[in-house]
Write a structure and sequence with these properties.
The complex is a heterodimer of chains A (383) and B (250). Chain A has 383 residues and is mainly β. Chain A contains two helices and 23 strands. In chain A, a hairpin with an 8-residue loop joins strand 6 (115-117) and strand 7. The chains are: A mainly beta (383), B mainly beta (250).
Chain lengths: 383, 250
């Protein structure tokens, strides 16, 4: 009897102690939390090139918990699965890295300051964002931010995953591990992929197209006529001391030389006549020399070059030969090895035509004869 | 005495209660199920020592069903993992290219190149594909970038141009329309506006070139490039490095 009474009393004492324990622990009782899956979630990479560094990943997701506090966000990159707390773990071999010092920009949750960090060891596959300022999520407003320090996975054409979680406490996010995600609020998985870089090469060669014609050349030096010029007046055309006679021709230059083209002229009369000039046997109508006016009755031979027209680019007459009209030049260099510059461009040109006007006059004592010269024009491009 | 012990057990459970994170597809206050099938005719992870298989028998309904606002995956075996597969110049697309050097460009005729990529995305509301990379640029101390057809245009030999599209063309005769594998009932990718008109070529760095508005099987895309130069295009070796970026929304 005595023993039974003792047993009941002891039982009452235990129950009382337990009840006190229950009351004392009431604040520890937490309501069960039901996390939600974030919607409209995506992660856009600034490049899919394998192993590329400083890649930007633009993260976007719409919270599932309207008005829920977001004091922490975790983005965990895994090669094997987007599933939170996957029992197969988080594979990181050849995977992406947030680097040991991750950073973000453009966070849409704008209250306070977000701190970016990671955990574990290389490769650092987990981004942890914390901010205890009490930002809240909305089911109608995406959360967006960009991770600016990503290193892409090392293999091309490879799918990998991201596990996105939100936390109501900074400690919850800070204590995250792939195996133990802890007590999170909202969650979601993303899939991403690297890709091989498409690399195409092509070559543009140096080009120079130059031509002369008695009529204005058409595009691409088409429509040419052979520049066999006859200087004189009357029928047959003759030179005399009464006037200065002229005959015209054209040049056209097209070149992709970025430093320009120079055109030089060589007179075939390299001896027996001053400044090249026109020769008939041993008789000579000399080159006029410095650029200037030509007077009827003073035997001279000269050239005027006009600035280029049409096409693309600029061709400029050399000051010894133009561009002022009705003045002519023919210097001693026309008989040198490489000739005398008559015009030039400073950059690339396409289909630019220049008018050349050859002029000559005879003196009263110029011997009769057929006076000729072969003028060779040479274009040189600087690439 | 028995009732007193039961009281102790109950209290211990409550004080050690944990937050139940319900991340499963089927979930109630105290229970959750993960891709479990109640019944016969299916088995996940049927494994030998070397291989595993998911197997079903007698499914009466399988595949994706859509309405305006909802989508469902039916069947004994459904995968809850979102996925995105992007492969560049892979053999799974019948039109693939391995030429990386186009040789000398000419003012007299267009030079063309091609490449391919494929995209597949599961449990997505769609995907977007973008091109990343500057137009072809020459080497040397003063690099020159070929003029891109930023507003789109046709090929014009003798005029400096660079552009591309993702459809079949006749002028020049290159390219192929997107291919749906195995057919159009499973795959839904398409070339994006600006890159979907025959004989019209375009290029803007970072621009969308293809997309799908729902989960899609494999779509093969053929990239067709045109290179035209003018007489003033600077000489040099021009290189175009392009990164294809696919982004799915889940």
């Amino acid at each position: 009897m005595r023993l039974a009474f003792y047993g009941r009393a002891r039982l009452i004492g235990i129950a009382t102690a337990v009840a006190l324990l229950l009351i004392g622990n009431l604040p520890l009782l937490a309501p069960l939390v039901y996390a939600g899956q974030v919607t409209a979630r995506s992660i856009e990479m600034s490049s899919s090139q394998p192993s590329l560094t400083s890649v930007q990943y633009a993260v976007s997701f719409t919270p599932a918990t309207n008005g829920g506090v977001i004091n922490g966000i975790v983005v965990d990159f895994c090669m094997n699965s987007p599933l939170i707390g996957d029992s197969n773990g988080c594979t990181t071999t050849n995977g992406p890295s947030v680097t040991s010092s991750p950073a973000i920009s453009g966070m849409s949750l704008s209250i306070g300051t977000w701190t970016a960090s990671t955990n574990g060891s290389a490769p650092y596959h987990t981004l942890i964002l914390t901010n205890g300022s009490g930002n809240t999520g909305s089911t109608s407003t995406p959360v967006t931010f960009t991770i600016t320090t990503m290193v892409n996975p090392t293999t091309a054409n490879t799918t990998f995953f991201a596990r996105v979680l939100t936390y109501t406490t900074t400690g919850g996010a800070s204590s995250y591990t792939s195996a133990s995600p802890g007590s999170y609020e909202d969650y979601g998985g993303d899939a991403l992929s690297t890709a091989s870089v498409i690399s195409i090469t092509a070559t543009v060669s140096e080009t120079l197209t130059f031509c002369t014609s008695s009529s204005a050349p058409l595009s691409g030096c088409s429509g040419l006529t052979t520049p066999n010029l006859t200087i004189g007046h009357g029928n047959p055309p003759i030179l005399d001391n009464t006037q200065v006679d002229t005959a015209t021709a054209y040049t056209q230059i097209s070149s992709n030389d970025q430093s320009g083209t120079i055109v030089r002229m060589i007179d075939s009369n390299t001896s027996g006549c001053t400044n090249g000039g026109l020769k008939s046997g041993s008789n000579c109508i000399p080159g006029i020399g410095a650029f200037g006016s030509m007077s009827a009755g003073t035997a001279d031979f000269g050239l005027n070059v006009a600035n280029g027209t049409g096409g693309i680019g600029t061709v400029t007459a050399n000051p010894n030969y133009g561009p002022t009209s009705n003045k002519y030049g023919m210097g001693s260099s026309v008989t040198s090895t490489y000739g005398d510059p008559i015009e030039s461009s400073s950059g690339a040109t396409a289909n630019v035509n220049s008018l050349l006007t050859f002029a000559a006059t005879a003196s009263p004592v110029t011997p009769a004869g057929i006076y000729t010269a072969s003028m060779t024009l040479i274009a040189t491009g600087t690439f | 005495m028995v009732s007193g012990l039961a009281l102790i057990v109950l209290v211990l459970n409550v004080t050690h209660g944990v937050s139940l994170a319900c991340n499963s597809q089927s979930c109630s206050t105290n229970y959750q199920v993960n891709e479990l099938f109640f019944g016969t005719g299916a088995q996940n992870d049927a494994c030998s020592s070397s291989y595993c298989a998911n197997q079903t028998i007698g499914e009466t309904g399988v595949g994706q069903s859509n309405s305006t606002n909802y989508r469902a995956q039916a069947g004994f075996n459904t995968d809850r993992s979102p996925s995105l597969t992007l492969i560049v110049n892979g053999p799974q697309c019948s039109y693939y290219n391995s030429v990386t050097n186009l040789g000398y460009l000419s003012t007299g005729s267009v030079t063309t190149g091609n490449a391919n990529f494929s995209v597949e995305s599961y449990l997505a509301s769609g995907y977007v594909v973008k091109t990343v990379g500057s137009p072809p640029t020459s080497n040397g101390p003063s690099p020159h970038t070929l003029a891109a057809l930023t507003s789109g245009g046709s090929s014009s030999p003798g005029t400096e141009q660079f552009g591309m599209n993702l459809v079949a063309n006749t002028s020049p005769n290159i390219g192929k329309n997107p291919q749906q594998l195995p057919d159009t009932s499973f795959s839904f990718g398409q070339a994006a506006s600006g890159y979907n008109a025959p004989n019209t070529f375009r290029y803007n760095n970072g621009e969308e070139i293809a997309d799908a508005t729902q989960s899609s099987g494999i779509t093969c895309y053929a990239l067709s490039y045109i290179f035209n130069i003018s007489t003033t295009t600077p000489d040099g070796l021009y290189t175009f490095n392009q990164s294809i970026v696919a982004t799915s929304t889940f």
